[in-house]
Design goal:
CATH class: Mainly Alpha
Helix content: over 70%
CATH superfamily: MFS general substrate transporter like domains
Largest sheet: none
Order of helices and strands: HHHHHHHHHHHHHHHHH
Shape: globular
Length: 429
């Protein structure tokens, strides 16, 4: 097993490379949590979007994972991952700035939002693959669960602050203006990544330098190698199947949930933001205890038990009725709390497991193939939710999504994941 570049074990809170990557992720997550609420509200409140248009907007954000995910994996294994992160941050900042500019110049439209979301999604594909591949080069394998937990703490904390801030901003100022905060966050995130002094290991530099000189045929073979690695590994294959199933149905159920809250329940943007903030508390709590839960239950059992928990709670949301604002807000918050908490614990453990069993030169292609597989179902789910919402109604879309997500554990029944107790110490053979 190759030595880790950071063999001198020190607390992650004293590791400058990790701390800077953590800061970058924290700032970016806060901005993204604002945009996650503000961008659909731009379409709903400013442009009076129909259910199918809202679904297409959600589809555009995630379609790049299906179209470019595999390409990103091979590219990230060839390119300096730190550079990919910086370009991804600055590119997304520039794209998001288009929205407030278009608002002030009166050429804001649904097609512009869709195009902006799609292009930003392409950059997100490369950023996410590079980020998950870069982290194992900064820290020791034994620290992966702790490192991923700290990253999830940041995302969860952003989920606590961002939605309320977004709802407040949308209430006080126009929704497109709130997008400025996300654009600024990507700029600051890029600055923190740029300040990381620790570079990729020399063996990766030699490999990527050589790879860039190889013809396109080799590029395609590397993509194929990533696919074979993921689908040939029973651990990765069953995790991918479970996550893809969960994402498909959960997205179908949640794509129109903001529209449901605003149009049918008549909740104000501020109340919607507050409910999402309360839901984010589940993620923060889960990130803090994820390591303890996996130690008590075992890594595999934790993964198996966590993935189906959000589905039943999503079904309950469909029974909300207009006129009971506080009760509806509490129902949304409760659903979000359980969904985010279980999803956070699940993701910390499954991502750490994937990173632990994958050889270093294969990290980019593994992460990209997994993202292509599991995130590729998100745009399909968004389209499905939009079609159900247009034909059967918003409540039906939420119920069908929740019921389907409840059975996301089934692929894990056909693999060895449940038998894993502790995190593996090296790549699988």
């Amino acid at each position: 097993m190759p030595k880790q570049p950071n063999m001198r074990r020190r607390p992650l809170t004293r590791d400058p490379g990790f701390l800077r990557l953590w800061a970058a992720e924290t700032i970016s997550s806060l901005g993204s949590s604002i945009t996650g609420i503000a961008l659909p509200l731009v379409a709903i409140t400013t442009l009076a979007a129909r259910p199918f248009e809202v679904a297409i907007l959600n589809l555009a954000d995630f379609l790049p994972f299906l179209l470019f995910g595999l390409i990103a994996g091979a590219a990230v294994d060839r390119l300096p991952r730190r550079g990919v992160l910086i370009v991804g941050d600055l590119g997304r900042a520039a794209l998001l700035l288009l929205i407030p500019v278009a608002f002030f110049t009166n050429w804001l439209s649904i097609p512009l939002l869709i195009c902006t979301g799609f292009l930003a999604g392409i950059l997100t594909v490369f950023f996410d693959v590079a980020y998950q591949s870069y982290l194992p080069t900064l820290i020791h394998k034994d620290d992966l669960v702790e490192g991923n937990s700290k990253m999830e703490i940041s995302r969860s904390a952003a989920g606590l602050i961002g939605p309320t801030l977004a709802g407040t901003l949308v209430t006080i100022i126009a929704a497109p203006i709130a997008i400025l905060f996300d654009a600024a966050s990507f700029i600051f995130s890029a600055l923190f990544v740029f300040s990381i002094r620790q570079r990729e290991p020399e063996r990766l530099k030699r490999r990527t330098a050589a790879a860039t000189r190889v013809a396109g045929e080799s590029f395609r073979s590397e993509i194929a190698a990533g696919i074979r690695f993921v689908f040939g590994n029973p651990l990765l294959r069953s995790i991918g199947g479970a996550t893809a199933t969960s994402n498909l149905f959960a997205t179908a159920g949640t794509t129109l949930i903001l529209l449901f809250a605003v149009r049918e329940l008549h909740l104000t943007p501020a109340l919607v933001g507050l409910s999402f903030t309360l839901a984010g508390g589940g993620g923060l709590l889960a990130a803090l205890v994820a390591g303890r839960i996996s130690k008590r239950l075992g890594v595999g059992r934790t993964i198996f038990l966590m993935i189906p928990l959000g589905g039943p709670m999503l079904v309950l949301v469909a029974f909300a009725q207009p006129g009971a604002d506080l009760m509806n807000m509490a129902l949304f918050a409760l659903e979000g709390f359980f969904s985010v908490a279980s999803g956070t614990i699940y993701n910390i453990n499954q991502v750490s497991l994937r990173q632990a069993i994958t050889p270093e030169p294969m990290q980019g292609r593994m992460n990209a193939t997994m993202r292509w597989f599991v995130w590729g179902t998100i745009p399909i789910g968004a389209l499905l939710g939009g079609l159900i919402g247009e034909t059967l109604g918003l409540r039906a879309a939420i119920v069908i999504g929740g019921v389907g997500a409840s059975f996301a554990f089934v692929p894990l029944l056909f693999g060895p994941v449940r038998s894993i107790v502790t995190m593996p110490k090296g790549p699988s053979r």
